[in-house]
Structures are given as structure tokens and as C-alpha cells.
Design brief:
single chain, 354 residues, hydrolase activity, acting on carbon-nitrogen (but not peptide) bonds, TIM Barrel, Immunoglobulin-like, signal, six-stranded parallel beta sheet, globular, five-stranded mixed beta sheet
Length: 354
């Protein structure tokens, strides 16, 4: 082999190796409390959190800066192999006390979504701006979680639609101003309180130049809705490492289209219509699960289009359908989730508009 041929083969091999090691999707972990004395449903114990972080380190995951990774995905720039991002909602002080030392020791970047009201009131349960600046110096990023953590879709008594939207806008603007004043910058990212949004909110968020996250499970790709991105909860019943490993190894569901009938559930069972891209997929192994109900009924309307239907109506609050499907190797799963909100009779929710 000539020197030129050898060099070409070597470069080609390096490029092939690099391409096989890159990925075009991102799983994101969502935490709240790192404590064994806070509500279990939104908590991991310090020992569990350390176990999660040690696994990421030992298994070769590349913990990435969330905003940079999202920008790379949108630009179709490959992420490192086994890329993952870490987030926290609410800015509880126990993140600093029990989570930050582990993150710092592993040199892991992370994002905390801050509701600034209790921070400004100097609540002892929440991070201080001084603590945030300390965390910021070693990889911490602080983003928007509204000022007062409201149910964003609920209107106050006798509140007009316009007044409601102004109030929600101010919830975001106050935090953006505080982040810049106290920390010198904002990553222009938002986590919706309780993971709830409707199209009017998402349009307003997009108009402000914010990327936003819900609380539905799934994996982010360039095709995701960047005003309603998924994350994997890693607290409470989802803190078990064995199940978290599967989620960390997941890929985005190869969907061409989806139709959920809106963001609100009613007294009727919800259903969702999913259309799959062309490709070799194990569609016969698709399974969809309804929160609190078990498996959804699957009705295939064509070879690549299915309707998943719950067996009964959701209770008041939030409900989900989660769908998974093994890839061709059986070693990874495609993952998708959708969330609906069913308002209570006494609650005044903003109506959906097209």
C-alpha cells in the first residue's frame, strides 16, 4: 500500500470511528431534592444520588452542558457518545449540601431551574445567590423555573385571558432579570412548574427566546419540540438504578407525526395517534403504558400508524402514556411519552386555542 493510500485509509478509519462514537440525541435526568428527610416522591437520598453519579462515571457516560448540547442538536452537530445531562428543579438548598459535592468531585456540569421568589425572600430551604455563584464557578448553570412556581394554566378568580398571559409573562421575566443581575447571565432555558404547558404558553416562551422542558419522559433530538422537551425523572419511584440504566440507554421514538387531541384530558379515556418513519423497526414489539392503568390498547390503522387508547379516564391532575420499543439489536429502547392535564371541577383553567 502506498503512503497516500495508507494515509487515506487511516483518516477514513478515524472518521468512521468518530462517527460511530457520536450520537444525535440526548437523555436528560431530572431531580428535585437530594435528601432523605424530604417528600419521597420528589427526592433521592444522598446515597442514591451518589450511586447514580458513580454509575455515570464508571459506565463512561459523558455528562454535558445542557444548553450547549441543545444548541449542538439543533445545529445537527454530533454529541459525544453516551452524552447525558443533569438537571434539578426548584433550587432546594439540599442540592448544594448533598448533591453539589458529588457533582464537583466528578467534574459534572449541571443545570438548576430556579423559582426566584423564595430565593429573594432568603428562605433557608432554598439556595442563596451566593451559593449559586459558588456552584456556577465549577460547572453549575442556573435557569428559569418562574418566580412563584404557579400552576401556569390556571387563571385567578375573575382574571381575563389577557391578564393571565401578562401574569405568566411576568413570572418568567422576573427570573430572567434576577439571573442576569445576580449571576451575570441566563442560559435562556425554562422548566415548566409541574411540567404543565399549553400552546399559548409555549408560543409565549418561544417569543422570549427560551428553550423549555416539561416532565414527560423521553429523549431529545433535533426534531423535538424545543418549547416542550422531555426529561427522565430520577427521584422517588424512579430512583432505582436498574431502571434508570435502561432510560439512560434509550433513543428517541422514530416518529413521523403524533396527535394527542390537545393538552387537556376529559371524562373520556385519552388516546394518541403515532405515525412512524420509514425504516426497519420492531413495531410489533411496541408497548404503551397508561399511568395507573397498565397497558394501553393498540389499534394499528396501517403498517406504520397506531392509536394507543387508555382503558378509562384519568383522575384529576396529570396523566401519561409512555411508549417503548426495542431497537433491532434489543439492547436499546426507543422511548416516547405524552402528558395530559385533567382539570378539577372547581379549578379555572385557561382554554386551549389553536
Amino acid at each position: 500500500m502506498s503512503s497516500k493510500s495508507y494515509l487515506a485509509a487511516l483518516i477514513g478509519g478515524v472518521m468512521l470511528s468518530a462517527s460511530t462514537q457520536a450520537q444525535d440525541y440526548l437523555p436528560v435526568l431530572q431531580y428535585h431534592h437530594v435528601s432523605d428527610t424530604t417528600p419521597r416522591s420528589t427526592s433521592v437520598t444522598p446515597e442514591e444520588f451518589a450511586e447514580h453519579m458513580n454509575y455515570l462515571q464508571s459506565a463512561g457516560f459523558q455528562v454535558v452542558d445542557l444548553r450547549k448540547a441543545l444548541d449542538d442538536l439543533k445545529a445537527n452537530t454530533p454529541l459525544p457518545s453516551k452524552a447525558v445531562a443533569i438537571t434539578f428543579d426548584d433550587a432546594y438548598r439540599n442540592i448544594y449540601q448533598s448533591g453539589f459535592p458529588v457533582l464537583k468531585a466528578n467534574n459534572f456540569p449541571f443545570t438548576v431551574f430556579v423559582n426566584s421568589g423564595p430565593v429573594e425572600r432568603n428562605s433557608r430551604s432554598f439556595l442563596s445567590w451566593e451559593q449559586m455563584r459558588e456552584m456556577q464557578a465549577v460547572g453549575g448553570v442556573f435557569a428559569n423555573h418562574t418566580e412563584n412556581h404557579p400552576y401556569m394554566l390556571r387563571k385567578a378568580a375573575d382574571e381575563s385571558d389577557d391578564a393571565w398571559l401578562v401574569r405568566m409573562s411576568e413570572e418568567l421575566d422576573v427570573v430572567e432579570t434576577a439571573l442576569i443581575k445576580q449571576l451575570g447571565e441566563s442560559p435562556k432555558m425554562l422548566a415548566y412548574p409541574y411540567g404543565e404547558s399549553i400552546q399559548q404558553i409555549r408560543d409565549m416562551v418561544k417569543g422570549k427566546g427560551l428553550i423549555a422542558f416539561g416532565q414527560q419522559s423521553g429523549v431529545i433530538s433535533a426534531e423535538s419540540d424545543f418549547q416542550n422537551l422531555p426529561r427522565f425523572p430520577a427521584s422517588g419511584p424512579y430512583a432505582r438504578l436498574s431502571t434508570l440504566k435502561t432510560k439512560l440507554n434509550s433513543k428517541p421514538m422514530p416518529l413521523l407525526a403524533e396527535e394527542a387531541g390537545g393538552d387537556y384530558a376529559t371524562s373520556q379515556p385519552v388516546s394518541i395517534r403515532l405515525a412512524f418513519k420509514d425504516g426497519q423497526y420492531r413495531l410489533k414489539d411496541l408497548a404503551c403504558y397508561v399511568s395507573g392503568q397498565g397497558k394501553a390498547t393498540l389499534d394499528w390503522v396501517s403498517d406504520k400508524e397506531v392509536v394507543a387508547t387508555a382503558s378509562e379516564a384519568f383522575n384529576v391532575g396529570r396523566g401519561r402514556i409512555n411508549c417503548t420499543m426495542p431497537d433491532q439489536t434489543g439492547r436499546q429502547y426507543y422511548w416516547y411519552s405524552n402528558v395530559w392535564i385533567r382539570p378539577g371541577a372547581e379549578q379555572v383553567y385557561m382554554s386551549e386555542k389553536s
